[in-house]
Design a protein that fits this description.
The chain has about 325 residues and is mainly alpha-helical. It is built from 18 helices and no strands. The chain is globular and about 65 Å long.
Length: about 325
């Protein structure tokens, strides 16, 4: 979830390449779709417009539309923008190896491209490579050409550092400014991810009311930007907030709703959150059942560490201090 799931879901970040005749039109995904449809009779023009609309397409979360055009009209020569779209599409399927492969190709084609750099950051989060993500976020915050991407880099770095020593309140405030700026530009996906990360900061502070409100607003924005995995994370954040506020029944309702639409590849995230909620607020036997399924799966390093922490917490709840020590 959020930054914790920025690892599993990630920040979706990219920036617009310049082009002339349609730049003023593609400020939102709806505009981009109209322009792309208008260009559809001319494949070369369509691909040129698509390659120049990366910030609008990714910022609004409309990867399905863009990847569909690429599938239908395979370009003779790829570009960093096309590889970003392919990487994004793979990430939505939770095909991490493919997302990494296309991200690396985008970087090799143009290591200075804002869209390639932003996507690389997103893929680092997706794969759980948080050390690399922090270093790249710091670089992007100072070197990206796009003001929006610089803001995203700064927010990403601050949220990562907040888990160590940065100020949590500063991180949440920056994320809200980024969400507002993204909303004004029609980038509902960036807005939703920013609010989701703010919810995770407030979760860490125990501010469940704020976290619940931010997670709800994040889910609303992300549903409009066709971002299934992040919607799952928002629902899980709402589940935690409800449980922390004393309504375990509502928390389980949120978990059930999330499970109904949870992609197979995102099942470990769901299991981790369900385990944690049951350990802290619910039934330890239910938690153990979820945990058994979780640890049986092939987990990335970040999720594996989180599963080990959940196992230690469950052992502590059961009064098994030796078991908790072994898990740590």
């Amino acid at each position: 979830a959020g930054l914790e799931q920025a690892a599993a879901n990630g920040h979706d970040i990219s920036a617009m390449a310049s082009y002339d005749c349609v730049s003023a039109l593609t400020t939102t995904v709806a505009d981009a779709a109209l322009v792309l449809d208008a260009a559809a009779g001319n494949v070369d023009e369509l691909l040129r417009v698509l390659d120049g609309s990366i910030e609008s397409v990714v910022g609004a979360g409309d990867i399905a539309l863009a990847s569909g055009y690429l599938d239908k009209h395979e370009p003779a020569q790829t570009t960093p923008g096309f590889e970003v779209i392919r990487s994004r599409a793979a990430a939505r399927r939770m095909d991490v190896p493919a997302a990494i492969r296309h991200a690396n190709l985008a970087m090799s084609l143009d290591p200075t491209s804002d869209s390639a750099l932003g996507n690389q950051l997103a893929v680092y989060f997706l794969a759980g490579n948080l050390v690399e993500a922090s270093a790249l976020a710091s670089q992007i915050a100072t070197t990206a050409r796009s003001e929006l991407l610089r803001d995203i880099g700064a927010a990403s770095w601050l949220v990562l550092e907040a888990s160590l020593e940065a100020n949590l309140d500063d991180g949440a405030a920056l994320l809200h400014r980024l969400a507002a700026k993204s909303r004004d530009r029609g980038h509902r996906h960036y807005e939703g991810v920013s609010l989701l990360n703010a919810a995770q900061i407030h979760r860490a502070q125990g501010k469940a009311e704020l976290a619940e409100s931010e997670a709800r607003d994040a889910a609303d924005a992300l549903r409009q930007s066709s971002s299934g995995s992040e919607v799952l994370s928002a629902r899980l954040a709402q589940a935690w907030a409800s449980a922390h506020l004393g309504d375990v029944t509502q928390a389980r309702n949120y978990l059930s709703q999330a499970a109904e639409t949870c992609p197979t590849a995102s099942r470990p995230e769901w299991l981790l959150e369900a385990t944690t909620i049951e350990v802290w607020y619910g039934d330890e036997d239910v938690a153990a059942s979820y945990l058994d399924e979780l640890v049986s799966r092939d987990l990335n390093p970040a999720l594996r560490a989180a599963a080990e922490l959940a196992a230690a917490q469950l052992a502590l709840r059961r009064g098994d201090l030796d078991g908790a020590d072994r898990e740590m």
